[in-house]
Amino acid sequence: MSPYNNNLKYSDITSKVDFLNRRQLIAGASAVGIFSSLSKSVQADILKYKKTEYKVDAEVTSKSDATSFNNFYEFGTGKNDPKNNSSMMKIKPWSVEIDGLVDKPGNYNLDDLLSGISLEERIYRFRCVEAWSMVVPWIGFSLSEIFKKVGIRSNAKYVAFQTLYRPSEMVGIGSNPRFPWPYVEGLRLDEAINPLTMIATGMYGESLPNQNGAPLRLVVPWKYGFKSIKSIVKITLTDTQPETTWNKLAPKEYGFYSNVNPNVDHPRWSQARERVIGGSIFKLGTPLFNGSKRDTPMFNGYGKEVANLYSGMDLRKYY
Ligand SMILES: Nc1nc2c(c(=O)[nH]1)N[C@H]1C(S)=C(S)[C@@H](COP(=O)(O)O)O[C@H]1N2
Ligand SMILES: [Mo]
Predict the structure, then answer these.
(1) Residue 72 beta carbon below 6 angstroms from any ligand 1 atom
(2) Ligand 1 pocket, residue 61 CB under 6 Å
(3) Is the beta carbon of 230 within 6 A of some atom in ligand 1?
(4) Sequence-distant (≥ 6) Cβ neighbours of residue 292 within 8 angstroms
């Protein structure tokens, strides 16, 4: 049963439950001497954050589904690969290079970059281009907070993002050598400064697990999931439209904009409906085989906030 059925936020009731579970885990685990194998999950940092009005009228996906059914090709193309293979990724120390058309370019240590920025929980719909969806309680802040720190030059028109490229810690890179690593993504500047556009550093009340893009990833809830680039190491302000990984791989299938649009089908499947991960009353154990169907809303339900960004564009067309 979701806490949202009675209009409570995830964090209202689950942080306490999580806390108790953690204590039980620690007690049980040390008693039987398997603490080390569990310590990674029980050590996840609990974050301080405030709640906001960003929530949706749908059941929140279970934490276990959202952290085990993933796309993060740097760790393999299977849905469970990111969870199974990403513990090798070293996320401390972490820095983000910010360059291009900014007043204060530099290689920012993560703590410095985040200092003074307050975290908030936002519950967003998340719609993958593969026609499945989740509802995720992210923790983070509007990307524009970072721009306030570094200052944007008036000629900047786009933002380019880049993921960590570290083959020794990312087994999917070596096993997929023809993939155009590193993973890159981009937004138009007005999309990037829309308040909905978020940098997430946590989810479900805790810091991001590696498989979900630790220590910081983008979340753009009105676009297909592949726009939400993980484990960011570089942000570049530019005046030209940046290349994006999936567009480079299959330009006929993945555009630069990639706004969620139920009226424009992927060349190989319909985008009209989506499989809600874990959304079945008959849980069959793995999200690959469960999930009820629902209609996909235009802009993934965020049209009120973002439709004006595309007023000149014919939304029946593929972009
Ligand atoms: N660096 C990187 N970022 C990525 C991906 C990836 O393979 N590599 N996959 C994208 C895709 S296709 C989706 S659907 C989301 C999945 O996010 P989640 O695993 O947190 O649900 O991450 C996106 N960000
Ligand atoms: Mo995706």
Answers:
(1) yes
(2) no
(3) yes
(4) 275, 276, 279, 280, 281
- For residue 53, being part of any structural domain is answered with yes
Q: What is the pTM for the complete model shown? A: 0.87
Q: Is the pLDDT score of 302 beyond 70?
A: yes
Amino acid at 221: P
- 74 C-beta closer than 6 A to ligand 1: yes
Q: Is the pLDDT of residue 305 over 90?
A: yes
Residue 64 included in any domain: yes
- Centre of ligand 2 to C-alpha 226, Å, is 4
CATH number of the structural domain spanning residue 169: 3.90.420.10
- Compute the distance between CA of residue 266 and CA of residue 186 in angstroms, rounded to an integer: 20
CA-nearest residue, atom 7 of ligand 1: 72
Note whether residue 189 is domain-resident: yes
Residue percentage of the chain with pLDDT more than 90: 80
Query: Ligand 1 centre and the CA of 228: distance in Å?
Result: 6
The answer to whether 117 and 213 are in contact (CB under 8 A) is no
pLDDT tens-digit series, residues 72-128 = 999 999 999 999 999 999 999 999 999 999 999 999 999 999 999 999 999 999 999
The count of structural domains within the chain is: 1
Residue 313 lies in a domain: no
- Highest average pLDDT, of 9-18, 27-36, 263-272, comes from 263-272
Q: Measuring CA to CA, which residue among 76, 82, 112, 119 is closest to residue 94?
A: 112
Least confident piece of the model among 4-13, 69-78, 176-185: 4-13
Find, among 295, 35, 77, 298, the residue nearest to 174 by Cα. Answer: 77
Q: Residue 45 burial by CB count (10 A; 0-12/13-18/19+): exposed, middle or buried?
A: exposed
Residue-number span of the structural domain to which 293 is assigned: 10-306
Nearest CA to ligand 1 atom 10: 226
Distance, CA 222 to ligand 1 centroid (Å)? 15
Looking at residue 210, what is its pLDDT?
A: 98
